């Protein structure tokens, strides 16, 4: 692997930049591996990386049906934060945020993590009280959070709709260490780092069947032949139920729904922070990319779907939210919009767990919050696979939690996947 | 866009409808064992393909419908009232019968 540094840029400059090599290999799949991870999204790639780095394991493959980072990894609005309140989630997402803070160095890859503040607009005394409770709880876990009054908010973000909003803005709840990162860069960074530790990343390799030997998985049938594995981890986001059924395991507490994202034509610097707006049924989040595009999104397309394409009523809904809090966007043109398939769980929280098959592990149920989770998800999933037991932080992130009466429901929305965010 | 052919109102855009979920789920008896309730409340087949699901014509006649829809292509195969009894009553009223 070419190590990236200022010196490397200089040195390669002397030879006309012809010395750079490809970032990861394109190996032929072997007949067998010790560990096979299905899905080269952020969670699969991060898992492979930490299996190799933290646990010294080799002989690992990541199988991807398309190209790496082509699923939700490449489709999200890149918000990274740790303002979760439920026990388990709190520690998990704060650990993830800490990993983000050092990720560029760790991977020797600029993931462009920008801690630009996550600003949740508040519109009522009740919302302010709820935010105070949440942010104080977070602070007890060593996370950061603060409340802004209206004057502070106006000074920081002057061009929100303070004049005639249907729901007047009264202040904000802010996490300053939160922000954005470059989605492709983290996929590529994990891929390159994992590859350099010997992980085979095999693209265009769709898993089409799971061969079982009683209570174990013995091999995976793929579009590139049979691949035997001692341990198997699923990290296929919106396709979790399909893999689950290939393994003959029946039903999961998951529904697949689609979520859209939008980017506008590039503008001059307008918005320094991530701004979130949610009141009266609205749900909207917006930031500005380094290229100048306004990147934003809203709610799910409200019905179950495996199609990676969005509907038009949501375009209108999200556009209405945009102009209601930032009227200055009224004449800005939409450049592109797209959709990804989310693995929405029954309580809005994920699963990183063992399964009823001895050597099969599941990583799923990320709803639309799995981008920020990627580093910790890989970290704890690798630990689970290597040691065959969950770390205490994820002990309730298993499939049996509902049977025990445990719901990790941040929104308090109940067991209806489409209501979680 | 999806057009749902409501048996009461005719073809309407899906933005008029709320979404329920998997219509194949039957809730067990109130005193059924906890495991049966767990499965009905929390587990889903999450079919990729044709599935029966409930939709609510919330901005129309407000009737619940059962729609057979492909979750990958969004093609709709059939639409019928979720509560056949209600439909019969309505038809009866429309024909001048007793309500
Ligand atoms: C529009 C949108 C906005 C979002 N915004 C945010 C946000 O702001 N912040 C945040 O934290 N999260 C956000 N998310 C959620 C986040 O993107 C996902 O939770 C996360 O990317 C899921 O993990 P992943 O990267 O591993 O998934 P993916 O990238 O989807 O990886 C799964 C991979 O599995 C592969 N696969 C599937 N089936 C098979 C098979 N049979 N064989 C082989 N490979 C297979 C797929 O091709 C895919 O590449 C958003 C998601 C979307 C769609
Ligand atoms: Zn109707």
The gist of it:
The complex is a heterodimer of chains A (421) and B (99). Chain A contains 10 helices and 18 strands.
Characterize the structure shown.
- The complex is a heterodimer of chains A (421) and B (99).
- By secondary structure, chain A is an alpha/beta fold.
- Helix content of chain A is 28%, strand content 26%.
- Chain A has ten helices and 18 strands.
- Chain A has helices at residues 6-14, 42-55, 89-101, 103-107, 125-140, 150-156, 183-196, 240-246, 312-325, 370-387, and strands spanning 32-38, 60-63, 79-80, 118-122, 146-149, 171-175, 179-180, 200-202, 207-213, 216-222, 225-234, 254-266, 274-277, 284-288, 293-304, 334-345, 351-354, 360-364.
- Chain A is globular and about 65 Å long.
- Chain B is α+β, with helices and mostly antiparallel strands.
- Chain B has helices at 34-42, 84-94; strands at residues 3-6, 10-13, 18-22, 50-56, 64-70, 76-81.
- In chain B, the strands form two sheets. Chain B has a four-stranded antiparallel β-sheet. A two-stranded antiparallel sheet of chain B has the order 1-2.
- The longest helix of chain B is centred in the last third of the chain and has 11 residues, at 84-94.
- Chain B starts with a strand and ends in a 5-residue tail after the last helix.
- The structure holds flavin-adenine dinucleotide (FAD) and zinc ion.
- Residues 38-44, 63-66, 70-73, 75-79, 206-207, 235-237, 239, 243, 259-261, 297, 340, 342, 366, 368-372 of chain A line the site of flavin-adenine dinucleotide.
The order of strands across the largest sheet of chain B is 3-4-5-6
Helical percentage of chain B: 10-25%
Largest interface, with Cβ-Cβ < 8 Å?
A-B, 25 and 27 residues
What's the helix count of chain B?
A: 2
Helix content of chain A: 25-40%
DSSP strand tally of chain B: 6
- Please give the number of β-strands of chain A: 18
Biggest beta sheet summary of chain A: 8 strands, mixed
Shape of chain B: flat
């Amino acid at each position: 692997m070419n190590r990236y540094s200022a010196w490397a840029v200089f040195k390669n400059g002397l030879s006309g930049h012809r010395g750079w090599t490809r970032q990861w290999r394109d190996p032929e799949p072997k007949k067998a591996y010790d560990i096979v991870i299905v899905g080269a999204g952020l969670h699969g790639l991060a898992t492979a990386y930490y299996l190799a780095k933290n646990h010294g394991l080799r002989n690992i493959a990541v199988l991807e049906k398309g190209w790496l980072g082509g699923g939700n990894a490449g489709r999200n609005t890149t918000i990274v934060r740790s303002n979760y309140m439920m026990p388990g989630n709190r520690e998990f997402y704060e650990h993830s945020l800490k990993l983000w803070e050092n990720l560029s160095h760790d991977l020797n890859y600029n993931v462009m993590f920008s801690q630009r503040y996550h600003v949740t607009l508040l519109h009522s005394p009740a919302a302010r009280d709820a935010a105070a409770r949440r942010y104080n709880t977070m602070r007890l876990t060593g996370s950061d959070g603060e409340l802004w009054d209206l004057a502070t908010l106006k000074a920081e973000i002057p061009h929100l709709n303070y004049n005639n909003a249907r729901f007047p803005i009264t202040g904000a709840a802010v996490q300053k260490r939160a922000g954005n990162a470059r989605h492709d860069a983290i996929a590529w960074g994990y891929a390159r780092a994992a590859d350099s530790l010997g992980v085979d990343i095999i693209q265009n390799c769709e898993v089409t069947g799971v061969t079982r030997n009683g209570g174990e998985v013995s091999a995976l049938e793929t579009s590139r032949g049979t691949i035997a594995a001692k341990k198997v981890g699923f990290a296929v986001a919106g396709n979790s139920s399909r893999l689950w059924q290939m393994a003959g395991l029946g039903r999961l507490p998951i529904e697949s729904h689609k979520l859209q994202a939008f980017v506008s034509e590039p503008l001059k610097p307008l918005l320094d922070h991530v701004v979130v707006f949610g009141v009266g049924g609205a749900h909207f989040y917006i930031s500005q990319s380094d290229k100048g595009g306004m990147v934003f999104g809203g709610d799910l397309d409200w019905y179950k779907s495996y199609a990676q394409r969005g509907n038009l009523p949501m375009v209108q809904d999200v556009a209405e939210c945009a102009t209601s809090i930032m009227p200055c966007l009224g004449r800005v043109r939409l450049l592109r919009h797209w959709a990804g398939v989310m693995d929405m769980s029954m309580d809005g929280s994920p699963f990183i767990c063992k399964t009823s098959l001895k050597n099969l592990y599941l990583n799923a149920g990320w709803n639309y919050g799995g981008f920020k989770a990627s580093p910790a998800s890989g970290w704890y999933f690798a630990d689970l696979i290597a040691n065959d037991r969950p770390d205490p932080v994820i002990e309730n992130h298993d499939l049996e939690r509902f049977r025990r009466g445990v719901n990790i429901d941040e929104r308090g929305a109940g067991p209806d996947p489409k209501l979680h965010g | 866009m999806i057009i749902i052919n409501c048996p009461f109102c005719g073809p309407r855009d899906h933005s008029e409808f709320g979404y329920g979920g998997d219509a194949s789920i039957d809730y067990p008896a109130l005193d059924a064992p906890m495991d049966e309730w767990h499965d009905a409340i929390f587990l889903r087949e999450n079919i990729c393909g044709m599935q029966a699901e409930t939709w609510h014509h919330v901005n129309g006649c407000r009737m619940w419908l059962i729609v057979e829809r492909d979750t990958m292509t969004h093609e709709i195969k059939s639409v019928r009232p979720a509560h056949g009894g209600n439909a019969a009553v309505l038809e009866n009223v429309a024909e001048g019968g007793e309500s």
